[in-house]
Amino acid sequence: AKQRHANQPAVQELLAQSNLALGEYGAAREAAGKLVELTPVRAESWVLKADTELAQQRRGDAETSLRKAVDLKPGPDIGARLIAVLVAQQDFEGAEEVLQTLVGSSRLTAEQYNLAEGQIATAAGDYVRAAEAFKRSLDDQPQSKPIILRAPALWRQGRKVTVINELEAWLENNPNDAAVLAQLGSVQLREKNFDGAAGSFGKLNALRPSDIAVLNNLAWASRFSEPRKSLAWAEEALELAPANFAVKDTYSVILAIAGRGEEALKLNQELIEAAPEQPAYVISRARIVAQLGRTDEAVQLLDSLVARAGPMDSASELIRELREAQRATTR
């Protein structure tokens, strides 16, 4: 009876899916292997096998499985999966070949082609071509996905103003597009436009309440403009994710701004001891001690970090900010 069930495709498919969901990747791959033996001309079986192989980071095996799936059932869905695997292996020529094959068999819409071309070009570092492809996709079918994918391609070209203008223009007509709001907020944070970021993440918080990343970013963006609300948002994020290091890191700095310096230092020290290789927590300690009026100590911490770990933009920017603040107070 056991052998009879073992030869039933539905049983092997269920075993592969359930083991994959449970994180038992070896057992999942074994079941998927039996499944393709039983159903060698079924594309979906090969796709499931590829999923189990990707779970074990066996990209070469996954590529082989997906190529068989595409041969059996050419189409944009499986083709996109294969392209993603090839890009992950930095086989850009192979990804282009698959893309052109799908185009030749009339299996792709113009929108799908442009999205795929843009993603391949982005991975290959050809940001001009990527931005152009995403723009064509957007023109063919206005939606948020090409807007979001185009932004990093433009950013890498130094076209920051264009990124912000395009995101804001999209939101004028689509004010509740959460994905684009998140993209704009992240760009505003990077550019230190904290008021703008607070506005973007505030709108996003109304759309997606109790989202840990949104609360964390909202707390950080509003830490100086609205310190009381910032502390409340940070506390809410911490309550939702008490073990999240990024949330704890934000909370530690906001505690210092709220005048609770000793608590801030204690929490920051816990983070540094838990992850001594993480420079972000040393940078946060510099922010905390600077907030406590110990600017010289903060600069020394950052200089020591750079000497030990090498140059890093975030540390250099903070050193510059602290020294400018020092000069301003001595004038």
How would you explain this protein's 3D organization?
The protein has helices spanning 2-6, 9-22, 25-38, 43-55, 59-72, 76-88, 92-104, 110-124, 127-140, 144-155, 160-173, 178-190, 194-207, 212-221, 227-240, 245-257, 261-274, 279-291, 295-309, 313-330. Helix 4 runs antiparallel to helix 5 (59-72) and helix 10 packs antiparallel against helix 11. The model has no long low-confidence stretch (mean pLDDT 92). The longest helix is centred in the last third of the chain and has 18 residues, at 313-330. By secondary structure, the protein is mainly alpha-helical. The termini are far apart.
* Strands, total number: 0
- Low-confidence segments, ≥5 residues, pLDDT <50? none
Spatial shape:
globular
Residue-averaged pLDDT, rounded?
A: 92
Radius of gyration, CA atoms, in whole angstroms: 25 Å
| Main pleated-sheet profile | none
Strand portion, in percent? Answer: under 5%
Instruction: Please give the share of residues in helix.
Output: over 70%
> Given the helix and strand composition, which structural class is it?
mainly alpha
Span from first to last CA? Answer: 89 Å
The SSE order reads HHHHHHHHHHHHHHHHHHHH
